[in-house]
């Protein structure tokens, strides 16, 4: 080999080594500098929605810890798919995030095609917590337990009905889970939102309804509705006298409505880990915990990898449930 060839080979090898070093350390360097400006968190629901408010509480604290603002952008429409698609297509640099919720499974179950891949286009970063749902009925029904409701449904197949805040809402999926787990034949009556659904149940025009615990507490205490069960595996601290669906004998009826934050799929892991750590730190702040408790949020700590698996399993479970109850996806 000539001296010129040897020098050329040496230069090529040095370039390759340099490139490898740059590739290896570039994400770490990016994470060390991140964040140096405001971060956008896309919310797929309107401002004032409980999930949106919970995220603001957590990310406001995260922003104070990191010295940067989190700007919540509400991009609603098409069942949350518009906002999700915009976040999925954003640069994976840690400056655009998605407020991830259990509603992602609904999008997969209800739409044949989506402008993004809910499972592969995001990295679930940190879980904010779980909002238990409580099963309520009008006192006029005379039910005092979940067993009473199930017995009435089995004695009158196809007669009882349940309200929801709309097709694919948390209240809908929770009731469908119970329907399948208990093997009952009941009718779904979707409404435009939770206020209408709750009103119809409270007046006795609809038989039962699942809703988040926070707005149900006062009506339950006032005797306007009867609490029969909570959707979580264990009793909710705010309703210690109300059994869980597991205690009532229907473990398959569990339904968890959760919220968290996700990043575009190719976001460097160093940034993901940093955001996860700061979120965990924020969730440990007593003032944040107290505020989340007013929404009935229960902590559900997970690592990044655990949250990723939980998310994938949750989406798959909703798709499976939709098939079981014959809900067909549309365009």
Description:
- 45% of the residues lie in helices and 17% in strands.
- Strands 2-1-3-10-4 form a five-stranded mixed β-sheet, sandwiched between helices.
- The termini are far apart.
- The protein is globular, with a radius of gyration of 24 Å.
- It is of the alpha/beta class.
- It contains eleven helices and ten strands.
Our measurement of the CA-to-CA distance between the termini, rounded to an integer number of angstroms, reads: 65 Å
**Number of separate strands:** 10
Rounded Rg: 24 Å
According to CATH, the homologous superfamily of the largest domain is Bordetella uptake gene, domain 1
Classified by CATH, the class of the largest domain is Alpha Beta
Looking at the structure, the CATH topology of the largest domain is D-Maltodextrin-Binding Protein, domain 2
Helix content: 40-55%
Low-confidence stretches: none
Integer average pLDDT: 91
Q: How many structural domains?
A: 2
Instruction: Compute the number of helices.
Output: 11
Any idea what the CATH architecture of the largest domain is?
3-Layer(aba) Sandwich
Spatial sequence of strands, sheet with the most strands: 2-1-3-10-4
């Amino acid at each position: 080999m000539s001296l010129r060839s040897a020098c050329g080979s040496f230069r090529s090898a040095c370039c390759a080594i340099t490139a490898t070093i740059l590739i290896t350390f570039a994400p770490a360097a990016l994470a060390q500098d991140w964040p140096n400006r405001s971060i956008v968190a896309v919310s797929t629901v309107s401002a004032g929605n409980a999930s949106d408010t919970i995220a603001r509480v957590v990310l406001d604290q995260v922003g104070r810890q990191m010295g940067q603002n989190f700007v919540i952008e509400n991009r609603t429409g098409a069942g949350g798919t518009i906002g999700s698609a915009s976040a999925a297509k954003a640069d994976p640099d840690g400056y655009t995030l998605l407020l991830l919720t259990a509603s992602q499974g609904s999008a997969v179950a209800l739409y044949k095609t989506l402008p993004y891949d809910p499972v592969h286009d995001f990295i679930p970063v940190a879980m904010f917590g779980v909002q238990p749902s409580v099963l309520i009925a009008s006192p006029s029904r005379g039910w005092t337990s979940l067993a009473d409701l199930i017995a009435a449904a089995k004695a009158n197949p196809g007669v009882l009905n349940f309200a929801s805040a709309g097709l694919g809402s948390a209240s809908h999926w929770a009731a469908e889970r119970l329907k399948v787990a208990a093997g009952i034949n009941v009718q779904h009556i979707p409404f435009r939102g939770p206020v209408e659904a709750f009103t119809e149940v409270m007046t006795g025009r609809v038989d039962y309804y699942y809703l988040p615990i926070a707005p149900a507490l006062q009506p339950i205490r006032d005797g306007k509705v009867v609490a029969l069960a909570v959707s979580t595996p264990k009793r909710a601290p705010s309703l210690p006298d109300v059994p869980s669906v597991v205690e009532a004998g229907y473990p398959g009826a569990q339904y968890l409505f959760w919220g968290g934050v996700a990043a575009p799929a190719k976001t460097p892991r160093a940034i993901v880990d940093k955001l996860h750590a700061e979120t965990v730190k924020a969730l440990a702040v007593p003032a944040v915990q107290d505020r989340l408790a007013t929404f009935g949020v229960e902590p559900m700590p997970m690592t990044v990898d655990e949250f990723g698996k939980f998310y994938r399993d949750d989406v798959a479970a909703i798709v499976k449930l939709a098939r079981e109850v014959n809900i067909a996806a549309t365009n």
